[in-house]
Amino acid sequence: MLDQIKGLHHVTSMAANAAENNAFFTHKLGLRRVKKTVNFDAPDVYHLYYADEFGTPGSVMTYFPFPNIGKGRHGVGEVGTTVFSVPEGSLGYWQKHLADQGVKNIERQEKFGESRLAFTGPDGEGFAVLEGKGDERAPWVKGGVPADEAIRGFHSASLRLKDGGATEELLKFMGYEEVDTSGNTKRLAVKGGNGADVIDIETVPGAPFAGLGAGSVHHIAFAVENRAEQLEVRKALMDTGYQVTPVIDRDYFWAIYFRTPGGVLFEVATNEPGFDRDEDTAHLGEALKLPTQHEHLRGQLERHLQPLGD
Questions:
Q1: What is the pLDDT at residue 130?
Q2: Chain segment 15-67, per-residue pLDDT in tens
Q3: pLDDT at 22
Q4: What pLDDT, on a 0 to 100 scale, did the predictor assign at position 68?
Q5: Which of 32, 209, 216, 275 is placed for a possible disulfide with 72 were both Cys, Cβ 3.0 to 4.6 Å?
Q6: In a domain, 278, yes or no
Q7: Which domain CATH number covers 205?
Q8: Is residue 106 in a domain?
C-alpha cells in the first residue's frame, strides 16, 4: 500500500461560460481565483483555478470553460458530488446565502452522520457544503463570505460507479482505508491526510454511463508532496498494471494521469511548485498567465478570451 498520497489536490470540471463560472465560485461560494491561464492543449480556452488564499492543495477547484459546449450527461463512470468543508453550525448561513444568490436545487441532507447542504452549479454539476468537524484550515476571507462560515477546502468527492469493487481496491492500494458504509455508498479515507482526504464510492449498477460535457468533472487529482514521491507512485501503479502517462509539467504542479477501472480519470499532482511561482501571493489570479509555448499567442488570446467581469 502506498503512503505518499495525502488526499485530494484538485478537481477539474468543464463549463459553458467563463464569466458565469467565475462569478459562481468567486462571488457565490466566496473562493479566490488563484490563477487565470489557458488549457495547455486548447489555448483558446481558459483554465481557471479557485481555492483558498494560496491555492493550497486540497482546496483547488479548476475549470475548462468551453464556449458553447454541450451539456454533460450524468451517470456512472464519473465524479458525482464535490463536497466542500465549512465550519460546524454554518449550514443555516449557507442555506440562506445560496438561496439569496439564486443557486439551484438546494437540499439539506444527512450522510454518514454529517449534516450537509447539496446544490448544483451553473452547469448542473453536483456540489455540497458539509460541516467539517475540527477543520482548522484557513479560509479565504476576502470573497464576501464571513470567516466564521467560509469554505475551508474540500472535504471529499464521490465516485459514481456501476461496480465499485475494482476502484475500491485501487484506492486502498493508493493509501485509502474503508471507514464506513451507508446504503449503496462506501466511504474511504486517508488517515492523517490533508483535510481533503475522503472518497465516497457510490455503486449504481443500473445507471447509464455518463457523457462528458458542461457540468462534468474531467478528472480528479490526488496530492503528493514532491516529484520524487510522484515517481514512486507512478512506478508502483505501473508495476500493478496501470497505464500511466509520463510526468507532465503543468507550471504550478507536475502531473501524471491514468484511467481507473470504473472509468474515472485520476491524476496524481505534486504540491510543488505552487501558484505563486509566477505571481506574488497578493495578486494571484489577476493577470492572464500563459504557458511558455503559448506566450507568442498572447495578443490573439487576449482578444479572443471572454472577459470574466472581475
A1: 98
A2: 999 999 999 999 999 999 999 999 999 999 999 999 999 999 999 999 999 99
A3: 98
A4: 87
A5: 216
A6: yes
A7: 3.10.180.10
A8: yes
Q: What is the pTM of this model?
A: 0.97
In a domain, 310, yes or no: no
Domain of residue 259: give its range: 8-304
Question: Does the structure show a pLDDT above 80 at 166?
Answer: yes
Residues 4-19 have pLDDT tens digits of 999 999 999 999 999 9
Tell me the C-alpha distance between 116 and 21, whole Å: 22
Number of separate domains in the chain: 1
pLDDT 10s digits, 193-210: 999 999 999 999 999 999
Closest by CA position to 237, among listed 170, 166, 172, 161: 170
DSSP track, the chain: ------SEEEEEEEES-HHHHHHIIIIIS--EEEEEEE-SS-TTSEEEEEESSS--TTSEEEEEE-TTPPBPB--BSEEEEEEEEE-TT-HHHHHHHHHHTT-EEEEEEEETTEEEEEEE-TTS-EEEEEE-TT--PPPP-SSSS-TTTS--EEEEEEEEES--HHHHHHHHHTT-EEEEEETTEEEEE-TT--S--EEEEEE-TTSPBPB-SBT-EEEEEEEESSHHHHHHHHHHHHHHT---PPPEE-SSEEEEEEE-TTSPEEEEEEEEE-TTSSS-GGGTTSSB---GGGGGGHHHHHHHSPP---
Are 154 and 82 within 8 A, CB to CB? yes
